[in-house]
Design brief:
The protein has 110 residues and is α+β, with helices and mostly antiparallel strands. It has helices spanning 54-68, 99-106; strands at 5-9, 12-13, 16-17, 31-37, 43-49, 74-75.
Length: 110
Amino acid sequence: MATGVAASAAGDDAGHRRQRSPVVSDERRHDLIVILDDATSEIYYAQLAVEETTATVMAGLRAVIEQKGLFCSLYSDRGGHFWLTPKSGGKVDYERPTQVGRAMKELGVI
């Protein structure tokens, strides 16, 4: 069981979308979704996705939980699937959880 899991992915950071970098030899662009243990930096999950979405993030979280067990905390960027931020760069609305937020709360992670 991990003492902490950090989710790091290309996507929103303080309300701004990072530009995708080419990761294959042609013009296709992908987002890299990485879930790692923040204490050891062990990578538990890494996947290239055409686009980072709630579904791709949830698939990664599910894979980690199935393989490693439930973690005790989750650190993430401010991507829209993790947190609702009504105004770009503004405060997170903790009263209106996202699907990922609701799942993590139901599991007792947050």
